[in-house]
Amino acid sequence: MQKIRALIVDDSAFMRKSIEIMLKSDDQIEVIASARDGEEGYELAKKMRPDVITMDIEMPRMDGLTSLKKIMHDCPTSVIMISSLTSEGAEATLQAMELGAVDFIPKELSYINVNIINIRDDLIRKIKAIVKQRSLSERLARIQQLSLRSTKTQAGNIRTSTQLPKIGYKAVALGISTGGPMSLQKIIPRFLKKNMIPYFIVQHMPPKFTKLLAQRLDTLSEVEVKEAEHNETVRNGVVYIAPGGFHMTVKKNGTGTVSIDITEEPTTTLHRPSVDIMIDSVVKIYGKHTMGIIMTGMGKDGLEGIRSLKKLGGHCLAQDEESCIVYGMPKSIVNAGFADVIASLEDITKIINEAL
Length: 356
Description:
Layout: E1 4-9, H1 13-24, E2 29-35, H2 38-48, E3 52-56, H3 64-74, E4 78-83, H4 87-99, E5 103-106, H5 116-132, H6 136-145, E6 154-155, E7 158-159, E8 171-176, H7 180-187, E9 199-203, H8 209-220, E10 224-227, E11 238-241, E12 247-252, E13 258-263, H9 275-286, E14 290-294, H10 303-311, E15 315-319, H11 329-335, E16 341-343, H12 345-355
Parallel strand pairs: 1-2, 1-3, 3-4, 4-5, 8-9, 8-14, 9-11, 10-11, 14-15, 15-16
Antiparallel strand pairs: 6-7, 12-13
Helix pairs in contact: 2-3, 3-4, 9-10
């Protein structure tokens, strides 16, 4: 099997060595070069054409965002940002994702850190999943340009409709992960204000990142977008994004209103927030009138939640492989036969708006 060729760009010699040791621990990945700043990284990316790049944000001479912008323009490549878990780091990381970065890992790497094994495994898992997707540069270009093309109507032997049935939906439950911030920015600003139902979204991200993501989407959108808060009453026409590090569920109160619960329990899930827990909770309140949506991301978080929805006769939309950064979560839905519609990123909002 041909090895994945990685380029490391970081001004810290410790970080370069740490990431190199992590990547070399997997026999399917080789580090072909490392760079001390964004300018050197850009030149090496053009010359060596790696499969994946890890990119620090703050560097001398040329910072990570400038280097990323030049790389995506001249030699599009899968770039994973190295981000500090601060408000400033989160803001810069979201900017990087808008420029074409596919994901990020935390900068707080230390071999005395008890989480180092988890960080290493997460980085390797992300690299393998991202590189496995072919023609990434073409998909990134399509996503960024939002070129029009017809909706996919077939996946394997599973035929789907190009429309969701109009059954009087009362809520939307959407799960998304790798490649999500850029993808959400393409769909949420097109939600119509007249569609007076709540939207519940789980995007796999750490604390601080989800709040900034919600604020950014709110400035771009006709509908209100906010990070969900504990015990707040659910309002129609509002997009609620689960806060990083916490599960988001909904419950019906004695007055008949629905409110949001933000909790760390259960602590045993692979992801927190969890798409499965959110969707299962929404389905218990809104039943088959929940519209389930699963978009780009690794793994299969959301599969069990959608299973619960389908048992009640509900409907689900899955993003197609061609427009996903990583075709993992939607693939699990398609393979299970739960996808009523398989749609490109460009068509998802149109299908949602037409069904509501």
